[in-house]
Amino acid sequence: MPRNFYIKTMGCQMNDYDSDYLAQFLVNKGFSSVNTPENADLILINTCAVRAKPEQKAYSFLGRMSSIKKGNPNLTIGMVGCLAQLKGPELLKRFPQLDLVIGPRELGRFQEIFEKIDRNSGKFVATSLDLAPPQPAPCKGYFHKRITGHVAIMEGCNNFCSYCIVPYVRGREISRSPDEIIAEAENLLSEGMREITLLGQNVNSYLWEGEKTKWSFPALLHELSRLDGLLRLRFTTSHPKDLSDDLIHSFLYIKNLCHHIHLPFQAGSNRILKLMKRGYTREKYLELIDKLRKNIPDIAITSDVMVGFPGESNEDFELTLDLIRDVEFDSLFSFKYSDRKGTFAERMDGKIDKTVKSSRLNILQDLQKEITLKKNKALEGRHLEVLVEGPSKREGQLTGRTASHKVVNFNSNNSRIGNLHTVTIKHSFLNSLWGEVLE
Ligand code: SAH
Ligand code: SF4
Ligand code: F3S
């Protein structure tokens, strides 16, 4: 019977959260987590399918794990997550050393799957998309020393943006009940966490309709914000088409809700936004940014954008750059469009050459670097509230984040970990700020 496990996580925050679910489950069953796959009896690779790159990485990691198994036939290897869902049983054919293929909506059946591993009863594939997200069983001490953590409040996506594989691998949207969410958050707080980020593929389309009660996303935020010990509350990722006035007002009356929103825009050209099936125009997006900033002047806005969508002309790309100049995001995740089999975009004409995609991405990233640095420099001399998360990579230094999610490093002893401190920003860099604690 396997006793040591190793989990490799290759995807987004939701994948991280799922890996924590699996790890807690295994620890509760008496397993121990090990830091090197060579010492494990069970290896789980939690995969991502959103672009070709993470897909390739997953295969190459699986290849390395398979060679470990050649020297240790009792090793069990499982592929879980979005790529496991997408490829299903064909993975077992392609990788003979692989034992388990488990999609992200099947994690709640891990008990059953676990019994099969236990009895060494051979290969197993689980890729139904119909199951509701499971409730993690509390695991005492698992989150030791983690100041910030996640709670998934909904899963899946109904939007089917034309380029995106997520709806195919995470299934339809389903919201968890407020009772479950609150219980999970309370458990994290009792373990010492001080900041919780609510997760969902479209977190702001959260809606719980119970027999007697109906809970909107702002109502859930309000309820959670009152939990004892919660210093900060965040959420990600929001979809522009579901950004309600109520949610904007929540930033004003919920005191521990961080003034930060991650609001992907994807493209600045209406023609491309339409082909992407995003459900909003450039003007509508800019209107939302305006409304957010009018109501919450210090709100930090971050976003996702893509270059090289099929048919994207130089003019379309210029409109994307123009939107970036106009909004001045605090930071931006930018990607080259990647064909995903089975999506609408995969079948579209006008695919963009990869050198053009790379050059557009470089131009865009250079522009954003200038903006990020300019915005960070403007913080020099300011006093910012920082939630101290732990030691930084350099000895004698601690690291934390501002409400706007910027990393701040400073000299201090460990006694400040887990608390909010005011820090004077002395130097700003592209990816972090350096400061001194205001005593
Ligand atoms: N639900 C979120 C996005 C989840 S995927 C939203 O709607 O904003 C995270 C990011 O990956 C997306 O915002 C998009 O920028 C990028 N992405 C998704 N599919 C992609 C593809 N096929 N090629 C390149 N980037 C992609
Ligand atoms: Fe993908 Fe669009 Fe759903 Fe985001 S909203 S997960 S980009 S389909
Ligand atoms: Fe990747 Fe799945 Fe997240 S495809 S981005 S791990 S939801």
Assigned CATH architecture of the largest domain: 3-Layer(aba) Sandwich
Query: How much helicity do the residues have?
Result: 25-40%
Classified by CATH, the class of the largest domain is Alpha Beta
Instruction: Enumerate the strands of the largest sheet in spatial order, edge to edge or round the barrel.
Output: 2-1-3-4-5-6
**Cofactors, ions and other ligands in the entry:** S-adenosyl-L-homocysteine, iron/sulfur cluster, FE3-S4 cluster
What do we call the CATH topology of the largest domain? Rossmann fold
- The structure class reads alpha/beta
- Average pLDDT confidence is 96
Number of domains: 4
Gyration radius, rounded = 22 Å
- The gross shape turns out to be globular
Question: How does this structure look, described?
Answer:
The chain is 34% helix and 23% strand. The protein is built from 13 helices and 21 strands. It is of the alpha/beta class and 439 residues long. The protein is globular, with a radius of gyration of 22 Å. Strand 11 (207-209) and strand 12 (214-216) form a beta hairpin. It has four domains: 3-126, Methylthiotransferase, N-terminal domain (Rossmann fold); 143-258, Transcription Regulator spoIIAA, CATH 3.30.750.210; 259-378, Transcription Regulator spoIIAA, CATH 3.30.750; 383-437, Nucleic acid-binding proteins (OB fold (Dihydrolipoamide Acetyltransferase, E2P), Beta Barrel). The structure holds S-adenosyl-L-homocysteine, iron/sulfur cluster (SF4) and FE3-S4 cluster. S-adenosyl-L-homocysteine (SAH) binds next to strand 15.
